[in-house]
Amino acid sequence: MKTLNYIHITLFLLCITLSFAQQTPAPEQTKDFAIVGATAHIGDGTVIENSIIIVSDGKITTIGPEASTPLTKQAMTIIDAKDKHVYPGFIVANGTLGLVEVDAVKASVDLSELGTYNPHIRSIIAYNTESKVVESMRPNGVLLGQVVPRGGRISGTSSVVQYDAWNWEDAAIKMDDGIHMNWPSSFSRGRWWLGEDAGLKPNKQYKKQVTELEAYFTESKSYNKGDKKESHLPYEAMSGLFDGSKRLYINVDDEKGITDAVNFAKAQGVSKITIVGAYQADKLTSFLKENNVSVFLRRVHTRPELEDDDYDLPFKLAKTLVDAGILVALEPSGQMERMNSRNLPFYAGTTVAHGLTKAQALQLITENPAKILGIDDLYGTLKVGKSATLFISEGDALDMRTNILTHAFIDGRNLSLETHQTELWKRYSEKLSEKK
Amino acid sequence: MCSFSLFAQDYFPSNAGVIANNTNYTAFTNATIHVSPTEVINNATLLIKDGKVVSVGQSVSIPKNTTTIDLSGKTIYPSFIDLYTTFGVEKPKRQRGESQYGPSRSGFYWNDHVMPEQDVMTTFKYDEKSATELLNLGFGTVNTHFPDGVVRGTGALIALNNNADNAMRIVDGRTSQHFSFSKSAKSNQSYPSSIMGSMALLRQMYLDADWYAAGHINTKDLSLEALNKNKNLLQIFEAGSRMNLLRADKVGDAYNIQYTILGGGDEYERISEVKATNATIILPLDFQLAYNVEDPFLASTLSLSDMRSWNQEPHNPRLLAENGINFTFTTHGLKSKKSFKTNLMKAIEMGLSKQKALEALTTIPASLLGKSDVLGTLKTGSYANFLITDGDIFEKKTKLYENWVQGTANIISDRSKTDIDGDYTFKINNTAYELNISGSTSKPKAKIKSTDKDLSTKMSYKDNWATLTFKTADSTKQEYIRVVANASNHNALNGKAILPNGNELPFNALKAKQKEAPKKDGKKRHEVIKDKPFMSPISYPNLAYGFEEKPQSETLLFKNATVWTNEKDGVLENTDVLIKDGKISKIGKNLSNKKAKVIDATGKHITAGIIDEHSHIAASSINEGGQNSSAEVTIEDVINDESIDIYRNLAGGVTSIQILHGSANPIGGRSAIIKLKWGESAENLIYDNSPKFIKFALGENVKQSRVRRNARFPQSRMGVEQVFVDYFTRAKAYDDLKKSGQPYRKDIEMETLAEILNSERFISCHSYVQSEINMLMKVAEQFDFKINTFTHILEGYKVADKMKDHGVGGSTFSDWWAYKYEVNDAIPYNAAIMHNAGVTVAINSDDAEMSRRLNQEAAKSVKYGGISEEEAWKFVTLNPAKLLHLDNRVGSLKVGKDADVVLWTDHPMSIYAKAEKTIIEGVTYFDLEQDKQMREAIKKEKSELINLMLQDKNKGMQTQPVKKKRERLLHCDSMDNEQHSAH
After folding, report:
1. What is the ipTM of this complex?
2. Interface test with chain A among B645, B715, B863, B906, by most A beta carbons within 10 Å
């Protein structure tokens, strides 16, 4: 009875939470518009000063220097963006937005499933478009992201969404893009509660765990070659890895693990491979390059893993990998990763302090993730024919002080930049100024 | 000779025969006798009777009824003493079950873990197997105790006499009183749940014991009675590490108690602090094994600090001796007792003098126990506890023959066993054989040859009888000749041979004349003077990025910088800053100083160092959650001066932090406010005349929202208020009584709360939602004081006007939210709204990662709420200084203030900025260029150490698997011994 009461209370509290309305998704673009005078950051490493961008039916129809593109003034909204900056919408690779609302409230968590091998588990159907955390991304220019299930050896299948939608079908821009896997770790921790040394010791189960994975992949392939009379949902879900329709995302950090994981995936006939985390990828740059392996680089704002590591190692890893010609995108996983995903632009900014150019840093959260996620036909850069998923900022969007948005668009739809948080801000500012 | 008859007690009846006491003497003659570590007599005699030494010397008169044992060529030492064992005591098993807040007994102290009344003899059971193991190492007496609890009761001194009963063996049944920071396994009482809790518990216990002794308590407390009774015994504290050793000594000092302390073998890392304790250290000899570094992947995860421990620990005893610190060795902590001798030899190899080693094993423990008259030497009247060896006991090859305890011999190896190594010849049935014997006194081995043919041979040698079994020369048959021969005659083996056919023939093997053995090349090589063993330099702190020499305060002149003064002058362009004597000396244009080191800061920015109002780095514990109030504990007790996070925070421009207690309970513990003087000891990190602070907490954590059992009050915000009202009401009554001049029971918790009531100590309160923030201000107003700071406050914006009226500051996260229910309405505009309402606002970290980038977090206030850059910068410098009552010393660039300064490569709040130099009181603790050099040095030193480890492994020495060191990230919720965390 007690437990039941507790659940009731939790549900009750959640109802209150959800009773604040989320921002209404913006309607389809009906009228063409032009953004004039801004510095356009294309996302591919180039910049156009004093640009003009024309958007029609949700697509960019024109982009170029203002001088070379005379404005045809028929039925078009003009947005004067002189001294402002335009960027492609930032993309959260390996994100979990929409799967958890409040970390500590279990009822609001839909992040992982029971079991070790869950390729059939699909994140998209749990993606919560009403999430207040999701809406808080938009005012920072974070407009798109991957929705990734976590846990187990094979966590499940992710999808890519845009952050302004009525339901998950509306939200999805690429359904079931890839399968996520956690590579066996080289170290394991003693079970301190059983009196074992809690320190990290070499994982004695490593070989066994890798062998198990091999068997799983092999069995999946055998199944998919057969007549599938009796269906096997997990094996079925694996097929995309072998026909090239899905990418394999492997979470692994250490040098040996990365090497083993890449060799494993190659041997299994997986063609699209991305290493997620990749803390020691800086020791393997030529190997990764040779094997055409891309990287979702772990959160820039983390502490170095080992006591002796350079204090700035997490800040400068991106520079090392980019210089080596590896396709790199930034990922946010870790503590409070969902609410922190809005700091994605500042993760990129920090890599500039530690070696990259601003244009290169921007690629880490626009063009590069779009390429890896396979959405670069429409998203990730500002090019003619691509989706008008972009925003206008008062200044440099990679710096906190100047990341101040005036407009944001997804597929040409003019988004609300209000959130639960801005509403509270206005409500209480008003209350306090009235008191004065 | 083996044993004397038992020394029966006179008054014990005997029904086993006549009472017959042996009153004979035993004399050990012609020996080299180490009467004490400082006195050696050659050709001496030791005369003993009734288990005691009668006399010792070169001219000892020997009574007629004396059995004499000739020890020509042998050496005698006093047997060793181990002060710290659990000999004969079974360690209690951990109680399973739910934790409880109250005690499980009555008539004793309120805390189950305080058990001074425990007497080790009540459970003691002589353990012959362990005794033999210790005897084989040379120990004759051991002090034993009950290894359980914070106060563990009395220990006893036991002679390892396998041939007597306890009446004889117990040298003293009450020798010592034992302490530790660890809870008893027998009780589930949750307090104390941290080291700082244990320290506070001990302090309060001593105060209560005095109060009890003065007769102020009408009821019985057998624990306090026992504690007072045990006061004059040796007080032994199990610390187990250098840091805990210093903590234990600090507790003792306040009550004039000098503990003898079990160390950790890492004392060399802060030798002067250890020396200052004046404690004698009980030193375990559990040196690290080399790590197995053959796998480069695994080896790359080893930390320099772990590698150094392996290399440096064996030098610890020498360094202690060189610094005049007293110590004694113990077998405690050794996984295999056999490694005691190996490690002792290693310590000597690293330069520990043999005299010091012998003192550490004999006279020092004897004197600590107050038993110098009967133990530790072989002077007249001492116990006849001594060792017989074939030479210097601190040489590897020396053999320990016998360990005599209380006049009773324990044979370890046969002293009388004749060495029969050598070449022999013998004949059987006219066939000539050659026999070679080696290793006869340890592992005998024989080779037999006949007409240049090797015959496979087996040999055993015991009690001067040798047996040989060898194959006949006829290799087509599986036939053997067996020989049994006696070795009493020095140059021959005489016995009989039994042939395959059963015939027995006399056997006489004659030893060949000894040839002058030419020295082998190998031996020569051995004699080459060995290089002095390589020792990695000790740095401060002793890990990567530590300083080999502590950096000094300098006179520094920064030229042509953009200077963020945080004062009326605002931000000054093209300005110079002069730092002298640890202070800001001048700010202006065209400054010069002849002695100054000039730094061109053109295009760069200079600011005051960042101050983090809410940090949990550099501490060994964060929460004492064993009770709903823990005002008696202080983080100052548990600062960890070797946390790499200190260095990493410096690299982010942080110079001062408040290490706050966690949020496990409504009334938490006292803070430590420190400067990040990387390399200084814990004590030196703390601010001089530090303002006094305490952590309070509200909301989900203190009402234990995520704890399964609802056992501790309060469980709701309603209860939280009542906790505060109750404690302050009692503190007020306490303070009134104290001020009245009447006798009062000193209570550390109440003292702390009274300081708050008297506005001598300030509250920084963990806070999220508006209702409870308002509540705490009202409670404070009811008791006529002010809350100083609401820390990481997130709904401050809802009650900013009330906060302004109350006069409380708000320290907040820049943009954290969504991690638990109570932060649903947390907004990044919080800082701006509070600031606009006139509240003093800071931005804090509560996180070892974020604190590295507080400049970025401050910059978020420009984005969220449009705060000016100059004001935003104060959120992480001057304002936290104000909240910590330190703004007269730090927080801005003002002449006369501490030179806690950061040189930035760029605008300090730009995402593109890096701290280039971080300076505290004129000392450069972080410097980008120096950091680069350190990286190279670390790489080089690690390679050298890996090479040495490989050499060890190749020598066939044992190794241990690599372990990966990862520091725990501590937050508000972190408990000692737990892995998870939250905010």
Report:
1. 0.94
2. B863
